Amino acid sequence: MPRRNHRVAVLVLEGAKPLDVGIPAQIFTTRQSMPYVVRMCGREPGPVAGGDGLAYHVSDGLEALEWAETIFVPGYRHPDREDPPHEVVDALRAAHARGARLAAISTGAFALAATGLLHGLRATTHWHYTRQLQARHPDIDVDENVLFVDEGRVLTSAGAASGIDLCLHLVRRDHGVALSNHVARRLVAAPYRSGGQAQYVPRSLPESLGPVFAATREWALTRLDRPLTVGALARHANVSTRTFSRRFVEDTGYTPMQWVLRARVDLARELLERSDLGIEQVADRVGLGTGANLRLHFHRILGTSPSEYRQTFAEH
Q1: Does residue 199 form part of some domain?
Q2: Are residues 80 and 163 both part of a single domain?
Q3: Which residue of 75, 95, 121, 227 pairs with 107 in a disulfide if CB–CB is 3.0 to 4.6 A?
Q4: Is 233 left (phi over 0), alpha (psi -120 to 50) or beta?
Q5: Under a CB-based contact definition with an 8 Å cutoff, are residues 76 and 51 in contact?
């Protein structure tokens, strides 16, 4: 029996930011390779005034939130001035009560905060608005130093680019690393900023360092089955080991060897999802040596065993 596609609604509010709207719409696009179906909605069907000189025309009103299993709230202009309309807040609360998953991109976190569903939870938003969010909602633990926060059925992310990380994280959570990597390749996006199964990752600051070691990370990803040291990575980047280590942490939030380990575990996940290789073979292919070593790191990072992980995603 074919698996039913997961239903996603993107809630476009007044002043919605174009990139924030487009990210979930494109990532969860209704296409043959994606087990999702997407509907764009607003307070009511029809035109919605957007930010940056753009407007939107949505086909659905708030009834789409009754249909959706995951609801995205993109960022919007001036979120600190007033809460969304009460009917929007009520619809989000009702959807969550029915079991829907709510995810905010950037300043969309203010809409989720208005529902009270972030009470007592960790959350984030665009760095420019973190203080305003904390001041308006002191009961929320606002973390300004992360790309996104996953609190189970309520998720929040920082600026627009981190919305990609959040969406890839959800694809990975729903269907495993293989599909997430497929989507990342389609978007020409980095697949590892989500930090594996971790609930959050440090924001890659300063942004200007983002591309500095991108080529070295890509080089490392093609050599995970071989010995990799900080020295070898630094030589490839043509900088000193000390400079490489310091800037790598600023760029990714991980030390070089922490990142390599997570990359190896992610490759192991993909092999477990898409091949019949035994645990020892997978360990050898990803540079972890033995099945015991693979099991150790799998449990530390993912909280499960390779065999249990393979069984979980066997049906995908």
Answers
A1: no
A2: yes
A3: 75
A4: alpha
A5: yes
pLDDT score at 102? 98
Bridge-based pairing state of the strands 55-58 and 46-49: antiparallel
The answer to the question of residue 200 being in a domain is no
* Ranges under pLDDT 50 in the chain: 1, 194-210
What residues make up the domain containing 89?
Answer: 6-187
Q: Which two tokens stand for residue 137?
A: 């909602």
Read off the tokens for 48: 């919605």
The reply to whether 41 and 171 lie within a common domain is yes
CA 90, 91, 94, 99 torsion-angle sign = negative
CA distance 244 to 117: 41
CA distance linking residue 142 with residue 124, whole number of Å? 5
User: Could you tell me if 307 and 230 lie in one domain?
Assistant: yes
Clarify whether residues 79 and 215 are in a common domain.
Answer: no
Amino acid type, 276: D
Q: Exposure string (b/e) for 4-18, b if CB count within 10 Å is 16 or more?
A: eebbbbbbbbbbbbe
Q: What does the pLDDT look like over 16-34, one tens digit per residue? A: 999 999 999 999 987 777 8
CB 106 within 8 A of CB 159: yes
Residues 14 and 146 both lie in one domain: yes
pLDDT digits (tens, 9 = 90+) for 275-315: 899 999 999 999 999 999 999 998 888 778 899 888 877 65
CB 46 within 8 A of CB 58: yes
Tell me if 301 sits within 8 A of 196, measured CB to CB: yes
CATH number of the domain within which 76 lies:
3.40.50.880
Backbone dihedral angles phi then psi of residue 10, each to the nearest 5 degrees: -110, 115
Task: Using alpha carbons, select from 141, 107, 144, 137 the residue that is nearest to residue 122.
Answer: 141
Q: Which of 120, 196, 121, 201 is nearest to 155 (CA)?
A: 121
Question: In angstroms, how far apart are the furthest CA atoms of the chain?
Answer: 58
